[in-house]
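Q: I have 222 residues here and want to know how they pack in 3D. Can you give me a structure?
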Amino acid sequence: MTLHREGKQTILIVSAAVFVIVLLMLLFVHHWTWLHYVFVAALVIFAFMIAAFFRIPRRIFTQSPNELISPADGTIVAIEQVYEKSYLKSECIMVSVFMNGTDVHVNRYPCDATVEYVKVRRGNYFVASYPKSSDLNERTEVGLALPSGRRILLRQVAGLMARRIVCYAREGDQVKQNQEMGFIKFGSRVDLFLPLDAHILVSLQDKVKNGISPIAEIGNEE
């Protein structure tokens, strides 16, 4: 397991703050009680939790040209037909993966593709599991053209605590299945907008893992 580069500054700041607080306590608190020890333990646990949030576990990725692999760790919270007006401009199936604070927050491309569209949209910070958060929250949209000729859209959605979405996608990029697409800090969701004829391989409340869990199958463009 390694730590993601997006977390290095945060981890350093939190670790430094914990170190300074404990040092000041050692210098100025002469009579420690059990409350002091509990407080220090809580600080150390908090620092480890922050570091764990930015972890990248070792995984054997699923390689499948016929399947879309989950772009995120989390829970399937929505599978519904919607109209996608930004890139696909058509009726689609939306599959949403909600990431809580303990999930791995790296986002990956679900398939080989060409990045045709990237758009950052400002918005609110409602709880990411809220159904309307996909349209109302801060979000980044990435439109992908698959080798088969089909097109899909990925949407990174900020949550109540997530105040920064990192997206590495640039229009014209040739990307590979399970390649890193970005990172969302502290709770969020990723929506996939798929053609109506996509064969969905997950159900509501299923747990999925980025780079491992198949989400759907889509055929060639007719």
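Q: Anything worth noting?
A: Helices lie at 8-28, 34-53, 133-136. The radius of gyration is 20 Å.
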